[in-house]
UniProtKB/TrEMBL annotation:
Keywords (A to Z) from UniProt: Basement membrane, Calcium, Chromatin regulator, Chromosome, Copper, Disulfide bond, Endoplasmic reticulum, Extracellular matrix, Glycoprotein, LTQ, Metal-binding, Nucleus, Oxidoreductase, Repeat, Repressor, Secreted, Signal, TPQ, Transcription, Transcription regulation
Gene Ontology cellular-component annotations: basement membrane; chromosome; endoplasmic reticulum; extracellular space; membrane; nucleus
InterPro entries recorded: LOX-like_protein, Lysyl_oxidase, Lysyl_oxidase_CS, SRCR, SRCR-like_dom_sf
Cofactor(s) listed in the protein's UniProt record: Cu cation
UniProt-annotated location(s): Chromosome; Endoplasmic reticulum; Nucleus; Secreted, Extracellular space, Extracellular matrix, Basement membrane
Catalysis: reaction(s): L-lysyl-[protein] + O2 + H2O = (S)-2-amino-6-oxohexanoyl-[protein] + H2O2 + NH4(+)
Record protein name field: Lysyl oxidase homolog
Disulfide bond positions: C68-C132, C112-C122, C225-C235, C353-C363, C469-C479
UniProt key word Cell cycle: no
Source organism of this protein record: Cyprinus carpio carpio
Top EC class, one word: oxidoreductase
Amino acid sequence: MVLFNALAGESLAMAFPSALCIFSLLALVQAQSESQQPKIQLRLAGNKRKHYEGRLEVFYNNEWGTICDDDFSILAAQVACRELGFLGAVSWSPSAKFGQGEGRIWLDNVHCTGREKSLAECPSNGFGVSDCRHSEDVGDHIIIFEIRIRPISSHLKRIPVTEGYVEIKERGKWRQICDEEWTPLNNRVVCGMYGFPGEKNYNNKVYKSLSMRKKKNYWGFSVNCTGNEAHLSSCRLGKPLELKRNGTCGRGLPVVVSCVPGRAFAPSSSTGFRKAYRPEQPLVRLRGGSNIGEGRVEVLKNGVWGTVCDDNWNLRAATIVCRELGFGSAKEALTGAKLGQGMGPVHMNEVECSGFEKSLTDCYFNNDALGCSHEEDAAVRCNIPAMGFQKRIRLSGGRNPYEGRVEVLTEKNGSLVWGTVCSENWGMVEAMVVCRQLGLGFASYAFQETWYWAGDASADNVVMSGVRCSGTEMSLPQCLHHGKHISCPKGGGRFAAGVSCSDSAPDLVLNAQLVEHTTYLEDRPMYALQCALEENCLSSTAKKNDHSSYRRLLRFSSQIHNVGRSDFRPKLGYHAWTWHECHRHYHSMEVFTHYDLLSLNGTKVAEGHKASFCLEDTQCDEGIQKRYVCANFGEQGITVGCWDTYRHDIDCQWIDITDVKPGDYIFQVVINPNYDVAESDYSNNIMKCKCRYDGYRIWMYHCHTGELQKKNCVEVLPGQFKSH
């Protein structure tokens, strides 16, 4: 029985994901046989742990059967692996290593030269002619190649590596690929798998001159891609090349690619990479991902962000998203809300892309999303360039690899040294950037004291101070920080910055439509507002002993959903909660939300705040059990898939607008405003509405989570979406 293992590759030493079997383990590949030869199909089956290995089975005469191991060789395994769509075989196994098959033993005494296109071309006893038992079934182990882009000497210091020779590692040696049958579509695939959205021309004279001087060591095959493959291993293997004794391949030269990085990864002359930038408003975005280049797919339509249903969602559509956002091809097209559920409308369903669209909004799709829920939100994981960010930062002294004192590598007096980060003003946003840079997901805590973590003593000196991040940065040096002149009053040591990371995080989102539909005005007497006054829920003009006056309150309900991948819990434990005698309840967070009324130029004209005296699961999605209730000093929090509702008729669920003049305003709600609790996405913690107040009535309209979109520049216009 022939047993297999499959071919794969890797960026700058990234192994192809086990041949990806984008054809799948049971994917059937029809043999390219001559008209007079039998037509067969192959598959890998049996008791296998990897999709690129297994018992080799043949489909012939409408029946699956096995192959006897008599006279079977690595050459026959190579032919079988290529016929299955892989690049080659690393080994084969006799004696039914992957379990005994059933039915016919179709082939016995198979003799291949290694250059055949199909096992059907190899001499054998003939189909069905065998004296073997199933204890002799063959199994294959398919080759896992490595692939790299090797830069020339003048490009060695460039980060990321965008240009160079494409080389494949075979039997321990790096080999170049002959460009005789190489096409621009192959370039597109190589650049995509290394995290680049496009490719460009290069100076051919430089490489031709270098090739003339050096001996070439070519790989023996050509590769033919359609341009839509996620990896070179998914491309079709071409015919074996006729290489000359002097190492040449006809008139061909070694393959060279030159890739175009996305804007966020474009190198700059001074630092090796650009500072963080404020991206132009896209029509597509990713949310909820724990690492760079991954997340739930959301699209903008008529000024409103919505999700994509996972019906028919595949790597081709996912790759369009990745390239549109400045990444390479997609590694995974995720379904079933694997990276969290969104809110609001589902804008796209049954997306169909050719693979060459500029934007997902150019693909055809069904705009009828009936039957699609947010449990079916589509997501992606994209290939990103190797920037070396993780080599410039480390966590030291923690109990596990996910926590510790932050230490960064910096240049000092001409040499690279490790040092600590000043913890002054160090917070959750900065910690999020550190965890992202390390590839450890989200921050769960930001520490301003780390005396309990004994870091590397040689790295005690503070080498970075004044760090202020926006949260979009890919690495800590991209954040604002002091230059050569370090300023850290408390010094390093016990006051060095630290973090704790997690692979999941909560994500709170306010139901904007509920706010819009429940807003009203109430004139309430001061004698009924004494507790609210004690909790600072009224404006400064309210007087404690003035029981005869009234306050005008802008009331509304809020419904806060946790759409993340872990529960939202207060930062402080029971022991640190504050008892408020007036309302007879505990505050687990002194400030949970800010309510503000702003002028059109952004000036605050009225404000309110809501202490989280009761974080609990008011309701949950079907099938999800409530975990948090406030009664009897219970655990507080919001479970994933649940929401906490603050009704319009409870204290402090308002803004005091007694002193506000009639006019047009912006109403704003911010959840978790001080970033006290880590979330996977802070950008959706803000909700804004336009409102008009005439002194007697108030109108609330155009409520949106996130920044209000300027319709004249980002609205999706008719014709931008193609639906069918």
